[in-house]
Structures are given as structure tokens and as C-alpha cells.
Design brief:
The complex is a heterodimer of chains A (332) and B (102). Chain A has 332 residues and is mainly α. Helix content of chain A is 80%, strand content 0%. In chain A, helix 4 packs antiparallel against helix 6. Chain B is elongated. Classes of the chains: A mainly alpha (332), B alpha+beta (102).
């Protein structure tokens, strides 16, 4: 029979610092093993199993607590050295996504037809809505996330800060691109087919622009080449698939620009300031899309209107803001 | 503990641990849990002890004679700073609270 606590110890080694493992996790493992060995020696197999389970849960509790303390301490230590805490950025972005994921339940129950949906269908719709939420909210959450991460640094962001913000936003952009290009269309098709089945609609389904992958959009544009006006909505959608990931980079640039200006120094301002900016971005995206579909403006301009506007604001902030201090960056 | 920060008063759990260790005998985590009679939990006692050691309230050593091979027990005892902090905490709770209430 294998000794208990091996897996929790393995996990603790990967989550906590060596000192924390030695001082916090190992004593708990020792307690567990001694208690378990006593139960095994007494022939109480059920008690031994219970000790193994409860002890592992206690070690997990200690590991989570201690790893949170370790992360906090590393983050505080990093910021003392005036480096950017990327952890803030990533944690905030993930938090926004998790909150939005829970909000995804709302439409499932609010449509009026939800009573006709089986629980499995509701759960599947929820899963299928996650890519849609991710493509919208992940880029947008980079603005408050980056502002929060930069707020404690005194003075303008250093080149190192800029690099780290751009690294995280590039990662988010890549994820959003993959989701928007291939995952989102499939998920949207699933939602439509489940909904139509629940409503008893039998007519053959013509997929909308949001249910087409980039390859399918390209084929549609090629098919309708003889009627350029008919291709507009497909071309707008194709541009949007690239515009939203690039939006992640634009939001990060704007955050860096605003940090240079020093307009968001508190947590409240870091959270409140992005709200009108994000709302304005999605408003411009929607207006541009509608205007392009109605042939009022070119398809490209319609899809990129939000990004272009925010990029101009970011550029203005960079021009007006103070230059990054070379001495602080060198010391970091 | 960071030397540029003034010492803060111990939390309730920390004060309890200092109280249990004040008897003079070195204790390990599980003994503290048992002695506390439910006031300390096995899942958090080592986290608390680790923080107290970092703050300089307690000190620890490995007891090679007890435990399992390769996994010695860690025994804790209060430092002089921890003992003074406990006395200050007791004084505060005995004298200052009634004075404030007046």
C-alpha cells in the first residue's frame, strides 16, 4: 500500500516555494502518515482510508493558502523593485472572463423557450457561449488589467513594463484570433441548432456570417464576386475576425499611454476609466459594421473603426505623456 | 520580519499559539492543535506557524528523534520578541480595553 500524501506533496512542490513546502506542507504530510500508519497497524482499513482522504484535503488547504501567500509576496516584492506585476494583469483578465462566463447563463434562462430545453442542452449552450464572451471580453479586460498592473509604479512605464504588457496582450490576441477564426463559428452553429430544435423549427438553416469560419467566409466572397455589394457583410465579418484580436493590442497600447499620462493611479479609477472607453469601442464597432453593411463606408473601415479611434487616442497619449525614465529602467 | 516596519499586535490565532508555547515546552503543530481544543485547525496551523516564524514571533528546530525517517518533526518555541509581544497583548487586553470603555 502506498503512503498517503504523495500526490498533494507533488502538487505542493509545483505551487509553493521550497521553504514553504518544508515548513508548511511536509509537517502536514508527516502528521497524515503517522496517523494513517497507526490506523493501518490497528487493522482499521476504513479509518485509514478516511485519514488518507481528510489528510489530503487538509494538505490541499494548506498548499492553496501558502501558495496564495507566496504569490502575493512575490508580487509585492516585484513591485517594490518597480517591475510590472503581470500577475495582476493576468488575474484580472481571467477574473473578468470567469464573471462573464457566469453571466452567460442569463440568456439561457431568459429566452422564454428555456423550459423546452433539456438541462444538457442548456449546459451545452453555456459552453458554446464561452468563445463569444472570450472574443469580446478578453481584449477589453486588458485595458483595466494593464492599468491596474501599472498603477503602483511611480512615473511612466519602463521599457520592461511595456514589453510585459505587450507579451500578455499578444498572448490574448493569439487566443482570441484562434477562438474567433475557428471555434466561435462552430459554437454559434451549435447554439442555433439547439435553439431551433427546441422551438421546433424545421426549415433548412442558412448559416449567418458569424457561423462561418475564415475559410468559409473567403469562399463566400469568391462565390459572390460578380455582386460586390452582396459580399460586403462577409468582408466586414472577415475583417472583424482580425480586428478583435488586434483590439487586444490596441487596448494595451492605450493602457500604456494612459499610464504615461498618470491619469489612473487608484484602483477605482483603473476600473471606472475603462468603462466608457470599452463601451465606446463596442459602439464604434457596431456602428461601423452597420454603416459598412449599408455600403455607407468601406468594409475595412467599418470593422476597424473602433481600433483606429482607440489607436489614435493611444498615440495622442504617448505624444503628450512624459518619456520613460532610462535610469529606473536600467535599475529594474 | 522586516525591520523597517513597526511590530503589529499578534492576531487571535497567533496570540493563542504564543499562549500555548509560553509554558516553556517545545511543541509541534499537531500538539498545538490538540492543546487548543478546536481553536486551531490542522489545515491552517502550519501556515500560521510559518508566518509567525517569518515575523520573528517563534523559532523552530527539527527533532530528528521523532517522526518518520526523512520526515523529522519540527518543534516550535517562542522567541524573546514573541514572549514580549504576548505579554504586551495580555496587558492590552487586561488594562487598555476597560480604560477605553470608560
Amino acid at each position: 500500500m502506498k503512503e498517503p500524501g504523495r500526490i498533494p506533496l507533488w502538487i505542493a512542490h509545483r505551487l509553493c516555494s521550497p521553504r514553504s513546502v518544508e515548513r508548511v506542507v511536509l509537517p502536514a504530510v508527516l502528521d497524515l502518515r503517522l496517523e494513517w500508519a497507526a490506523a493501518v497497524a490497528a487493522g482499521e482499513s476504513w479509518r485509514a482510508a478516511w485519514i488518507r482522504l481528510a489528510g489530503s484535503a487538509r494538505i490541499a488547504q494548506a498548499t492553496v493558502l501558502q501558495s496564495a501567500i507566496d504569490v502575493w509576496r512575490r508580487s509585492a516584492h516585484t513591485q517594490e523593485r518597480r517591475e510590472l506585476a503581470v500577475a495582476d494583469l493576468v488575474v484580472f483578465t481571467t477574473l473578468v472572463f470567469v464573471v462573464c462566463s457566469f453571466l452567460a447563463w442569463l440568456p439561457v434562462g431568459a429566452g422564454g423557450f428555456h423550459e423546452r430545453l433539456r438541462l444538457a442542452d442548456r449546459a451545452w449552450i453555456f459552453v458554446c457561449m464561452l468563445p463569444a464572451l472570450a472574443t469580446s471580453f478578453l481584449p477589453a479586460s486588458l485595458l483595466p488589467g494593464a492599468l491596474l498592473a501599472l498603477r503602483r509604479a511611480s512615473g511612466p512605464p519602463t521599457p520592461r513594463d511595456r514589453t510585459r504588457v505587450l507579451e500578455v496582450s499578444s498572448l490574448v490576441a493569439a487566443v482570441v484570433f484562434v477562438l474567433g477564426a475557428w471555434v466561435l463559428p462552430v459554437a454559434n452553429r451549435q447554439v442555433v441548432s439547439i435553439t431551433k430544435a427546441a422551438l421546433g423549427i424545421k426549415e433548412p438553416h442558412v448559416p449567418g456570417t458569424r457561423e462561418l469560419t475564415i475559410g468559409e467566409l473567403n469562399r463566400k466572397v469568391a462565390e459572390l464576386e460578380a455582386w460586390p455589394w452582396a459580399t460586403t457583410r462577409y468582408r466586414v465579418e472577415r475583417h472583424k475576425r482580425f480586428a478583435l484580436p488586434i483590439g487586444a493590442l490596441v487596448f494595451s497600447l492605450l493602457a500604456l499611454g494612459l499610464a504615461r499620462l498618470g491619469v489612473a493611479r487608484t484602483v477605482v479609477s483603473c476600473l471606472l476609466l475603462p468603462m466608457p472607453v470599452v463601451a465606446g469601442y463596442f459602439f464604434l464597432l457596431r456602428v461601423g459594421e452597420q454603416a459598412a453593411v449599408q455600403l455607407a463606408i468601406p468594409a475595412m473601415l467599418g470593422a476597424w473603426l473602433g481600433n483606429a479611434t482607440l489607436a489614435l487616442v493611444a498615440l495622442a497619449a504617448f505624444i503628450r505623456g512624459p518619456r520613460a525614465s532610462s535610469t529606473t529602467s536600467a535599475s529594474a | 520580519m522586516r525591520r523597517d516596519e513597526p511590530p503589529s499586535m499578534p492576531s487571535r490565532k497567533e496570540a493563542l499559539i504564543l499562549e500555548l508555547l509560553a509554558a516553556g515546552r517545545e511543541l509541534y503543530g499537531l500538539e498545538l492543535v490538540e492543546a487548543a481544543g478546536g481553536a486551531l485547525k490542522r489545515g491552517t496551523v502550519y501556515v500560521t506557524l510559518n508566518r509567525m516564524e517569518e515575523k520573528g514571533y517563534v523559532t523552530s528546530r527539527l527533532d530528528e528523534s521523532a517522526g518518520l525517517p526523512g520526515l523529522p518533526r519540527r518543534l516550535y518555541k517562542p522567541t524573546a520578541f514573541g514572549q514580549r509581544l504576548r505579554e504586551a497583548s495580555v496587558l492590552l487586553s487586561r488594562h487598555l480595553t476597560p480604560a477605553r470603555a470608560r
